[in-house]
Design goal:
Shape of chain A: globular
Number of helices of chain B: 0
Number of strands of chain A: 11
Oligomer: heterodimer
Order of helices and strands of chain B: EEEEEEEEE
Number of helices of chain A: 0
Radius of gyration of chain A: 13 Å
Strand content of chain A: over 45%
Distance between the termini of chain A: 40 Å
Order of helices and strands of chain A: EEEEEEEEEEE
Strand content of chain B: 35-45%
Helix content of chain A: under 10%
Largest sheet of chain A: 7 strands, mixed
Radius of gyration of chain B: 13 Å
Chain lengths: ~120, ~110
């Protein structure tokens, strides 16, 4: 059974930083691209970032470019999101998701998400 | 404002057929695969339809997808109470170089 479990969410002040982790199991992690997708409470889904299976390339939404960094450790079956210079509008439930291939393939499996709250 | 446009809500009675639309443009739906997801609070989002019309194993055949031009649709037949959820369409957008989502449709089973 595929499992994606996020951790690292917290309450952080504007301008602060937080690092999210996603532990993957039940599939061959290093065969697939991985993404972070967020959901603002009461609103819709927004794709944040994607990283290739090898970790050699990554894409970011314009709203987070230059502030967030996605990475992965295939030896640990883990995905990460380093979030810096946080803003109130970054408050959301952050899901990690596996792709069916590259970053352009559908999101196959999702985690339940972890809440990040940016507030003074 | 979402790149893909969905109705805010939809409803139906048990056993009915409901359709949810998703409208986009030539840079996303018009040239890329559309995927549909089901979101139930407290659970992980679930892939319902990929590549416009295909169902992953385990998804009931009551769920079906279609696409024409720059619009796509999700149909749910034989509506059941457990289908009450939020449904989202998604497609890669070549102009944005990013994934585009619809705003989501809240389905209520009356």
């Amino acid at each position: 059974e595929v499992q994606l479990v996020e951790s690292g969410g917290s309450v952080v002040r504007p301008g602060g930083s937080v690092r999210l982790s996603c532990a993957a199991s039940g599939f061959t992690f290093d065969d697939f691209a991985m993404s972070w997708v967020r959901q603002v409470p009461g609103k819709g889904l927004e794709w944040v970032s994607c990283i290739s299976w090898s970790g050699d390339s990554a894409d970011y939404a314009d709203s987070v470019k230059g502030r967030f960094t996605i990475s992965r450790d295939n030896a640990k079956n883990s995905l990460y999101l380093q979030m810096n210079s946080l803003r109130a509008e970054d408050t959301a439930l952050y899901h990690c998701a596996s792709h069916g291939g590259t970053c352009h393939a559908n999101f196959d499996y999702w985690g339940q998400g972890i809440l990040v709250t940016v507030s003074s | 404002q979402s790149v893909l446009t969905q109705p805010f809500s939809a409803s139906g009675t048990p056993g009915q057929r409901v359709t949810i639309s998703c409208s986009g443009s030539s840079s996303n739906i018009g040239s890329k695969n559309v995927n549909w997801y089901q979101l139930i609070p407290g659970t992980a989002p679930k892939l319902l339809i990929f590549s416009d019309i295909h169902r992953p194993s385990g998804v009931p055949d009551r769920f079906s997808g279609s696409k024409s031009g720059t619009s796509a649709s999700l149909a749910i037949s034989g509506l059941r109470s457990e289908d009450e959820a939020d449904y989202y369409c998604a497609a890669w957008d070549d102009s944005l170089n990013a994934w585009a989502f619809g705003g989501g449709t809240r389905l209520t089973v009356l």
